[in-house]
Design brief:
Blueprint (H helix, E strand, L loop, with lengths): L18 H12 L9 H27 L6 H17 L7 H36 L5 H8 L10
Helix pairs in contact: 1-4, 2-3, 2-4, 3-4
Length: 155
């Protein structure tokens, strides 16, 4: 039986991971209270899945943080979160519920940091646009971009 390798994340493609399946699995893992009735190898596979996801999301966090100015508070916090992620990912994977839940917490924290960084980058871009065009409104910005001949005539 031949098997086709499954690519979970290709950083060269710059496509984000599908977050929903990870969040669903994180929720399930946090619901475990004791032995979930899975084989140790299955638990280890889940830990490997979370490890791969954590590395991929950490890479996305780094790219998002790099878009912010060096002095931005969200960038500094991202650096702290990434250092902690590196430390936790350097630990070996165990086939235990505790290990899987720790990796799930890490993935959740990285997704939260990524969401905050995207929001901060959006705010920073909006602030720089407002600074470049004080008093500008979305309508006035659009009229600057639309040539006069293409604007609708007012009666």
């Amino acid at each position: 039986m031949s098997s086709t390798p499954l690519v979970l994340h290709d950083p060269q493609a710059e496509l984000p991971l599908d977050r929903a399946p990870h969040e669903c699995l994180i929720k399930a893992v946090f619901g475990w209270t004791g032995n979930p009735g899975l084989a140790s190898a299955d638990i280890q596979q889940i830990a490997l899945l979370f490890t791969g996801a954590a590395r991929a999301v950490a890479s996305d966090v780094r790219r998002a943080a790099d878009l912010l100015p060096d002095e931005h508070a969200a960038r500094a916090l991202a650096d702290v979160v990434l250092e902690e992620a590196d430390r936790r990912l350097s630990l070996g994977i165990e086939g235990t519920v505790r290990c899987v839940q720790d990796r799930a917490r890490l993935v959740r924290a990285l997704y939260e940091r990524l969401a905050r960084l995207v929001g901060a980058a959006h705010e920073a871009a909006s602030a720089s646009e407002t600074a470049a065009h004080p008093g500008a409104t979305p309508t006035s910005c659009l009229t600057e971009l639309i040539p006069p001949t293409a604007r609708p005539r007012r009666s």
